[in-house]
Amino acid sequence: MPIFEFVCEKCNHLFEKLILSPNEPAPICPKCRHADVKKVMSAGNSRPNGIPTGSGGFKAPSCSPSGG
């Protein structure tokens, strides 16, 4: 389920919102209750080279031959 970041145009509050459907209306600001919010680019949990690291990441399988 995608989580998007929004910023309020009135109070500049940055918040996250779980969007379940593309038809879901834009959220309102949880701080000032203003409806004029804008979706912003989220850094999320991605890295520039696309390789996840840290807990919950994955490790590529080894290319070394297995011993018999």
Label this structure with key terms.
68 residues, 3-stranded antiparallel β-sheet, 3 strands, 22% strand
In short:
By secondary structure, the chain is mainly beta. Helix content is 0%, strand content 22%.
Please describe what this structure looks like.
This protein is mainly beta and 68 residues long. The protein has a domain at 3-40. It is 0% helix and 22% strand. The chain has strands spanning 3-8, 14-18, 37-40. Strands 2-1-3 form a three-stranded antiparallel sheet, with no helix packed on it. Strand 1 and strand 2 form a beta hairpin. The radius of gyration is 19 Å and the shape is elongated. The chain starts with a strand and ends in a 28-residue tail after the last strand. 6% of the residues are buried. The mean pLDDT is 78.
Task: Write the SSE topology.
Layout: E1 3-8, E2 14-18, E3 37-40
Antiparallel strand pairs: 1-2, 1-3
Backbone shape: elongated
Question: What integer value in Å does the Rg equal?
Answer: 19 Å
If you average the pLDDT, what whole number results?
78
The helix/strand series, from N terminus to C terminus, equals EEE
Percent helix range: under 10%
For the largest beta-sheet, the strand count, sense and barrel status come to:
3 strands, antiparallel
The strand line-up of the biggest sheet is 2-1-3
Low-confidence stretches: none
The number of helices is: 0
**How many DSSP-defined strands?**
3
